[in-house]
Amino acid sequence: LPFFPIRSGSLDGSIYFFSNGPFEISSWEGTKVTLVPNDQWSDQIGNIASHEIQGLEFVGYDSFSDATEGFLNGEVDVVNVTTSQLSSDFQIPSEGVIDGKTRHITYGVFVNSESTSFSQVESRKALALGLNKRELLNMLSVEIQRGHSPANSWIPEGISGSDNSAGLALSGSKELATDYWARGQNVDGISIELLYSAEDSLHAELAVELKKLWEQKLPLQLNLRPEKPEEYFADLKTGRYQLAIGGWQADYPNAANWLHPFVTDSDENFLNFTDDKYDSFLQSADMANSRDERFSEYAKAHNYLIEEGVIIPILHPVSLALVRSEFSNAVNAMFDFQGMWTFD
Description:
The chain is α+β, with helices and mostly antiparallel strands. It has helices at residues 64-72, 121-128, 133-138, 142-146, 165-171, 177-183, 201-217, 229-238, 256-259, 276-286, 291-307, 328-334, and strands spanning 8-11, 14-17, 23-29, 32-37, 56-59, 78-81, 96-102, 105-111, 148-150, 190-197, 220-227, 243-249, 311-324.
């Protein structure tokens, strides 16, 4: 991990670092690990010397109740929590608040553009028109509601290049979805399949609610197609689906990780999406002379992907934490890059 003690070496006369994050370990005693600023770190924004955080201490507890007791006793300022731990009888201490951070994961519906029913952009957009993600989230179980936020952006919040304007426009549109469906040359009463993983509770709940919503607003019959995980991933990878519920995450928060999979010649292009205009946005981003120019091209590519209706973003998972009120702003800023409360 980047905060492990720095170890340097050399290769062809050049010094390199195995790990050189903004913090380094100063002590590790029992369940307590203390980090201090790494004076050899210089990031793209500024040197660590200009940062306000002078120390971080991580403390391990055997149970959630021990951790909350430590919070009440002033031993710790942040306790990461799960949705199940936030049960109806959990009392938030007066000195604390529950904060949430959007994780770098997006769940949504993939629309196979090579499927006859969705070969026209109008048919694909009909699915997204008026699909209010907040209302959809409220139809799901309380535990899923607590652990997710509605998404209109394929690229998660906080990542440069993320832009939810196209998704918001479709979600809040007052245009008739049936008009778009008719323009897509689809007949009334057509039967469509929705693929999802049978062993994923989020997939299962979304499938049921999407079936209700789409059968209410469009002249179609939606057949649910649950599959075992290995079959589901195989069919998704090879494009054997019309609609599919799925998710995407990346090892690090770069907009390209959410966009490059869908260029025409990508091996990961499970959308079967082939579009020269989309490819050109990413080519321009790769050749950009500045960060601002690159992120601008990423935003164009992202909005085009949503406008073409091949992806309908629905939810982002949220990591939750009990935070001492006075440190809420500082902790939020500290975890902006990580996009999550824990290092798992």
